[in-house]
Fold each of these.
Amino acid sequence: MQQFVNLTLGGVITGAVYAAFALALVLIWRSTRIVNFAQGAMGALTTFIALSLIEGGQSYWVGLVVALLAGLVIGAVIERVVIRPVEGGPELNAVIVTLGLFIAIQALISVLFGVNQRAFVAPFSTIGFKAGDFTLALSPNTLFTLGAVLLVMVGLTALFRFTRVGLAMRASAFGQEVARLLGVRVGRMLTLGWALAAVVGSLAGMLIAAEVTFVAPTFMDALIVFGFVAAVLGGLDSPIGAVVGGLLLGLALSYVRGYLGDELVGLAALVVLVVVLLVRPGGLFSTTQTRRA
Amino acid sequence: MAEAHGSTAAGAAGTGLSKGDAGRGAATGSHVVAGGGTATADAVLSVEGLSAAYGPVKALDGVTLRAEQGRITAVLGANGAGKTTLLRTISGLVRPTAGRVVLNGEDVTRSPVEAMVTKGMSHVPEGRGVIAELTVDENLRVGSLFRGKVGQDEFDRVYDLFPRIKERRGSTAHTLSGGERQMLVIGRALLARPKLLLLDEPSLGLAPRIVAQIFALLRKLVDTEGLSVLLVEQNARSALSVADTGVVLNLGRVVVTDDAHRLAGDEDLRHAYLGF
């Protein structure tokens, strides 16, 4: 029973991080129909920028704000400079470009910050709460992680539902040509979509870094696999789907890890991906009837 | 429908001129500046020697036409005549290889697509361009975004024009019928407060009764609010019944420009180009 409780808690927490990462993928997929394979590397880069500030004596919060701002700028610049020329072209071109970005950014991190593992100190205590003699897999820091993901999800939903910019972004995503004819500056909305996604990706990087405590330039690589599976599970189009998909995947993988063995986690994620694509290719929360790719 | 009234006098005045322009434009292949003082003053949109191509295929070949203030101009022709390309080139979705587009006296040939609506022109694309994932209300709001804050009374006015879509305002647009979609996109275009409305095949796939309803409404807006309409239609009979001026397009060239009633009465022309 205690094991089950802790596996569930652990699943929810890793699931929340998957969800944040999946949200970033969904934001970009919605606006430009591109799966951003460079998302992990972009998040790693901003996390390393924050880490070097923190190591230099700044507080975690200064590092967090700088990481998010850096994400905003990097996302916007990448869209304008690298992605814009391949937008609307063959899908494969964009995929190759994001894969190339992934390798280039990872190399850049190694050049700037070195390839060694570095300690990342969590902003809150990572010692679990106690219920009697039993230590829960729930600490002040994991509560912060959960709260941050929840806040981002609510914020993004509110942005899309209730604001003019959100409406313009949705219009650009779903009907690019019509939106342009109606005077929406679609190019700006796409840039904004990438910038927002990179902010969320940076947040995911900061959260996962605090969970794993040691970071190397490749520390986000595993996350892109799980984040992608979570996004597909949620339908790739839906922010809420991404969060639910992330939580479900986190739980499923946590049970696999606890009851079946750590070595099966990667395989289990693949099984989930294949089953979803076979049984419900539109995902659990897809807003469109059919989806290409 | 009131289309027979009011249009005849103005139509007759402008007719001889327009016909002459079209003839010269086709003959020389260069753009023609309309000579008549009255017609020039009234043109909301004037297209001069416009050409466009998809790769080696020439879709528009020196098209010269004008849309006049407070009138409905119908561009007619068979499939592949270049009607849709004409509208897409006017609004900048397709870049012309030659020619000019002048809107309210301003050369907008190279203006970005997004800017056209701020210059007073709304383009309703073919295939009823609703954004299917958004609700009816959200679709309307997208149409007013560029103007900043827009009062609820303007939305109410659109809903008054089209009570059918008012009932569906909270539903996602992909649940609408074809007629409701057409009403939605026209309503959405009107929220931009255009001086000129470009309509691409509004009758496509709609029941005749709905077509008549939509055309009657257009006529009313033109007559009472001074809206100008450039209408592209394959359904020549319906279009000519509502339009003031007809322009017949064939293989990317203007064949004839004339008063709509006279066009409808010209049997040879009808048989040759309009199929009725």
Amino acid sequence: MPVESVFPRLEALLPHVQKPIQYVGGELNSTVKDWDACDVRWALMYPDAYEVGLPNQGVMILYEVLNEREGVLAERTYSVWPDLEALMREHAVPQFTVDSHRPVKAFDVFGLSFSTELGYTNMLAALDLAGIPLEAADRTDDDPVVLAGGHAAFNPEPIADFIDCAVIGDGEQAVLAITEIIRAWKSEGRPGGRDELLLRLAKTGGVYVPRFYDVEYLPDGRIARVVPNRSGVPWRVSKHTVMDLDEWPYPKQPLVPLAETVHERMSVEIFRGCTRGCRFCQAGMITRPVRERSITGIGDMVEKGLKNTGFEEVGLLSLSSADHSEIGDIAKGLADRYEEDKVGLSLPSTRVDAFNIDLANELTRNGRRSGLTFAPEGGSERIRKVINKMVSEEDLIRTVATAYGNGWRQVKLYFMCGLPTETDDDVLQIGDMAVNVIAKGREVSGRNDIRCTVSIGGFVPKPHTPFQWAPQLSAEETDARLAKLRDKIRGDKKYGRSIGFRYHDGKPGIVEGLLSRGDRRVGAVIRAVYDDGGRFDGWREHFSYDRWMACAGKTLPAQGVDVDWYTTRERTYEEVLPWDHLDSGLDKDWLWEDWQDALDETEVEDCRWTPCFDCGVCPQMDTEIQIGPTGKKLLPLTVVK
Amino acid sequence: MQRIRLRYTKRGRLRFTSHRDFQRAFERALRRAEVPMAYSAGFTPHPKVSYANAAPTGTGSEAEYLEIALTEPRDPEKLRVLLDESMPRGLDLVDAVEARTTGLADRLQASVWELRLDGVTLQEARGAAEAFLAADSVEVERRTKNGLRTFDARAAVVRLEALEGPADRPGDTACAILRLVVRHATPAVRPDDVLSGLRATADLAPPVPAAVTRLAQGLLDEETGTVTDPLVPDREVVTAAPPTAAGQTAATEAPPAGGVAQEGTA
């Protein structure tokens, strides 16, 4: 059955909206396949504005992996801004893909990638515009399977009513396995309808289908248990882990948009996973083990990617990029190769203790030395032991001294406020640290125009981390602590003017906390916020704390809980957590021990360089650490003219 | 250093490309095509590209111009084909000459625009055009960065005529074409300013937004109101032959087949 493009109807609306180019598609390296020649069709969404969603690596990878397969088609869709949403509603234009402008409802799967919980209201807006019932229970065989992925999907319970299923972990192989199940079910004539398809997916043990699990509650509001309600549905659902990144060199042909986006560069993921063991970091916990891409694999991806895109900057991505076992040779090899071509290299996420000046010099061979960014996260030695971010103040001062001595003029430092056991004093020490940085910088550079910017935000405890039991600091206390720090920095006559202070107030963190550690009862809050007009919650100008609190106040008390119950309440060992039936590989008892170690200010080493500390992931998921060095080098490229 | 002048288009759905978007896309295409670009000096060197008089976002164009500077000479036509392959379909490079003269920007004196008015009859369009041309001045308003601004849209209009819409349109819906020649002046008078003027003088209110396309830019013959190819002087130096018919007539004829508003149905 041919599916018509909605473009002619959309086109008439575009002259009336801001930045229409974001809705027309046609990006370099985008793919349009013949609809009728494909039997499994995916609509992939990053539920935020195009400028944020387009550069997302996850969506880009899955888009290419799916489109490379015979008979499979994937197109992309993004959140439309309120100006276009209003016009689409007025003129009955449905949520569309940007590749062929097909209606999202016509696809077999509607897959959403959630990097953050703040995209949930945008998912509801897209479903509604697509003409797909918001509640999974109301959907029919004519609706796509609504599938959630991304880091936030490790606790999909707050959106359990709205999604048909969720996949946790790496998506590359998972989307292909799901495709095969859908293909078989369709070719058999869709036996048993939607229910049968979801059951087949659930039985694999790698796809979570919320409707096949019943949640029972205790009188005090805590969860009693989560039980499968169908035979053959496993008690726990496993995350997916791709081994050998060199076999998955995606994206091979990165999308190059016409519209301006937040990352105007080519990104290459140099390794996945992190075992540094920072206790606040969900990404580090749920992406274990560390799997490095080889130096030659990286060189290949950069070479092909630059040829296919024309980008002038390459970002070497990972959770802690300087930790790659051959990062020095990678940086030098790439800098040598592209010195003439004016290609810049960047290394987001660099640890203070992994930073070295040779590396920094390679990265800035072509460019200017404007700023360096580090994330000590905690102001005092004590709190850094609590969070297991083992960076000493001496390390930091030594590093910035080298940087200032080598021509850098600005250092940015990232911190969190509201960490477990934190006191005012821990946060006020951030001010001392900044002063020491400036003092050292003035000393080694002999100049007074150097700067240090302190950037700080509220900590949100996340599922599948040792801090999943921790109480979140209230917005009021967070704001009060930040105000004290601000006053201390501003009050410093000698150094205050050299220190920039940027902070986020505590309110958005409370909503994020509610959504992060929420259970199925929080779904009613999300629905109420959406119905009241809530959209784009990650954008300051659209986010409304008051709306979230009003909607929570209307829906949660009937269930015997409230926002504080989800956020500032400390959990106990016995409590069944809403995400316990989603298996990230981490042993819950190990997480608890690590939480106790945090309270005792005891640190844990990185298992890449010390013996295994039994977090549970490798045996549970049958995976292993994959790191170099390979001993290989990047040779100069042969120039063919 | 060699300088090459290129004419490019904004066709179909890519007419929604803003000028900044085009610049980024073009500079990336230069890198993909490994064009030996000359770079500006300074901390952050930029490839030397000068753009002239870009059409507004949302309007199509058959005649946008830019000039690039190269460190090694290249055959203009081969370079054009290479760059055209590297750019997305719709942003097409359609003409190239080596710059032998100065002052390309000065030769862009006027534009020929086509405005397709769906839902408007030829009679309505013709009446409105006549009323507009009969006026001495037509005050219009436009919102700019500095607030609402009022100016005359009449004086810059050299020609304005109404034509029958294309024959291939669906059903028997009304459709008229306005052919407009506008002198480039300050403040710039754009096609939508003329549409505002038509609304003010003749109450012409198209039910759907007009599809606007720039057909040509170049030297203006004040007598006849025709616009001629601005790259002709560069070609003349090479060939020493009289201006080609193609160069002159392209300016006032319809765009090449496969051009405007045919994409987007994919």
